[in-house]
Amino acid sequence: MSVSQFVDHWLENSVQEHCSASKDHSNGHPVLYLKDWHFVKEYPEYLAYTTPLFFCDDWLNLYLDNYRMHKDPDTYQENNEISCSDYRFVYMGAKGSWTPLHADVFRSYSWSANVCGKKRWLFLSPSQHNLVFDRNMKSSVYNIFDDVSEKVFPGFTEAIWLDCTQEQNEIIFVPSGWYHQVHNLEDTISINHNWFNGYNLSWVWNLLLRDYNEAKEYIEDIRDICDDFEGLCQRNLAANTGMNFYDFFIFITHFCLANLVQLCHLLRDCKNPTWSSSTVARHLALNLRSLWNIAVKINSIGGVAGSHGFFLDIRETLDDPTFLNLCVGLERTFGMIHKKQSFCFDTKKDLVDDLTSLDIIRTYGSQICTAKDLVRFIDNAIAIVSGINSEIVLPSELDGA
Fold first, then answer.
1. pLDDT at site 139
2. CB of 97 within 8 A of CB of 189?
3. Which pLDDT score is estimated for 82?
4. What pTM was estimated for this model as a whole?
5. Could you say which residues form the signal peptide (predicted)?
């Protein structure tokens, strides 16, 4: 069904007022819900809205504006380009449409802004998520307003729900790992983004590791007859979760380099009171510490990504126009968050020149093939930067922060 067909159906049935928010049909007609419409990606020149400042530190969509999530041709399908192109959506639903109980993709943050209409949200904190799962923690409650079987879901009645109503022009923020069910109390149009950054990156890795172990368990019986068992596990992980270890490691490696580019530029520009503010330095340090921690965790399970042919040449990456665009996008984000002036497009190459001028590549080397390589690269870069300016807050100083 096209968007225009959906709107025609919606208008045809919107005059009927006895649609119940707890039922799926109105007068015999289905209550349809348009979800996950990639409006920004389909109409990039329209600029219908800007992301609120609180939510602009968005690594996920910044990355997908420049790169594909999947590098493996067996995973990426050309005809599926729009469906995995970004995580910025428009939702349109009549009164009575709803979204079943779920936690967000990648265990990302999300925000939802009501353009018009009214929604009811039911939230469950991460500490209680086990209460809506069966005894084996394999399946969860679909609709919390159903007659939920106590035998199948023995902890359900103990769950404590946060219940709130979202009005027109209001925004709801959903933290990582919070299960929620949403009902449209009126005809509603909303804007919804999923995103993650250095502050919730560990949620993404924990989900990937859990889903990887499940994917491996499901096909364990064919390990001995499978030519590439690990590759099959990774393809299944990408299909089920939206990315695999390989995709994720490429993602964090690019953001490691991009954050180091910002840090090196900060170091060069340290006489500028805006750029050298402690908030900027601390933000960069927290990002690098988060990326370092994830690389250590990947390495601790054997560095799966590195064993499947991953190779990144740092020098080539720094010369890549796509990576330069990623750096400029990240720099703009810092500019908005920390109220600093952004650079002009014609000077963007200067950003990466600061990294190369500090001899970080010469002293380490220009290749990253494994998670262990990434850990060593970050350690080496931080050692060089701290030797030049000890006032910059470094990741190693933030343990336990």
1. 94
2. no
3. 47
4. 0.89
5. none
Residue 161 token pair: 């729900």
Q: For residue 316, which amino acid is it?
A: E
Return the axis-axis angle of helices 245-268 and 349-357, rounded to nearest 10°. 80
Burial of 169 (0-12, 13-18, 19+ CB in 10 A): exposed
Q: Compute the distance between CA of residue 38 and CA of residue 195 in angstroms, rounded to an integer.
A: 14
Question: Is 119 in contact with 166 (CB distance < 8 Å)?
Answer: yes
Instruction: Report how far residue 271's alpha carbon sits from residue 382's, in angstroms, rounded to the nearest whole number.
Output: 20
What tens digit of pLDDT does each residue of 290-321 get?
999 999 999 998 865 444 667 888 888 988 99
Contacts of 287 (CB under 8 A, 6+ apart): 197, 198, 255, 259
Residues 6+ apart with CB under 8 A from 12: none
CA 290 to chain centre: 14
- The pLDDT of 344-371, averaged and rounded, is 68
Cα 223 from Cα 226, distance rounded (Å): 5
What size, in residues, is the chain? 401
Give the span between the Cα atoms of 36 and 193, in whole angstroms.
Answer: 10
Do residues 292 and 395 touch, judged by C-beta distance below 8 A? yes
CATH number of 3-55+86-195: 2.60.120.650
Give residue 240's identity as a one-letter amino acid code. Answer: N
User: Could you report the per-residue pLDDT of 22-46, keeping only the tens digit for each?
Assistant: 455 555 667 889 999 999 999 989 9
Q: Please name every residue paired with 113 in a beta bridge, in sequence order, or none if there are none.
A: 171, 191
d(CA 262, CA 352): 8
**What is the average per-residue pLDDT within 270-298?**
80
Q: Which two tokens stand for residue 203?
A: 């949620």
